[in-house]
């Protein structure tokens, strides 16, 4: 199979298993059951990066390239509400502000935003749902076989083509549970990717993202997450009644966000609101607290 791809005898292929290198993961496509919309899941198998947030940022670029190969000229991007989602959102907004052109989707929920919830999955709100590959893998399996108990995948397009910076093959993945109806669509998905030159589109997206500072943005994230030689001891300020909730903090950064406020003499507590993690502060310190969190890169 690889020899046929390398020699250009075939332009793409569909297979049950392939060892993609680190940096490459597959971009799947499903039919959302709520409204019957097609939705791209970026990504579904493989490892784009060993760091979660870095991986999801690159998954976004991979998803955009695939969406364009599928004929969506201006795909709308949503970020699934999993660990790391807020960090991904901040990084993508910075990338966007520095010239990388794409559009965020808006959640169906009343509070909107680009971070997607369960009902957005069912409705197919965004054109591209960005997630980590393990969650994406789970989603593909659920959407493809929820009517059969999981033993036979009937709907959707499979786990999709492997995409990554500089990758030069179109290899679409299906599973041992994939049935004939899904494999039929996976073959069409592969053919469409090859016909519309997915590899060239991916190269263009990475070139544009790198020009907007992709590597620098990721470098800052990785530097921030390096383990400190010693954790600075920060004394908790005197307790106050905390009734003001500050949303938009990633669960992985919640305790660090509270400590950054303590350092400035602002008492805070971590909590969980109806839409996700929150930092709780007193009403009279709310504005100052938000400014401190922004200054320290938590919002």
Automatic annotation (TrEMBL):
InterPro entries: FA_synthesis. GO terms for molecular function: acyltransferase activity, transferring groups other than amino-acyl groups; glycine reductase activity. It comes from the Bacteria. It is an enzyme of class 1 (oxidoreductase). Gene3D superfamilies: Isopropylmalate Dehydrogenase (3.40.718.10). Its EC number is 1.21.4.2. It holds the Pfam family FA_synthesis. Keywords: Oxidoreductase. GO terms for biological process: fatty acid biosynthetic process. NCBIfam families: reduct_C_alpha. This is Glycine reductase. The lineage of its organism: Bacteria, Bacillati, Bacillota, Clostridia, Eubacteriales.
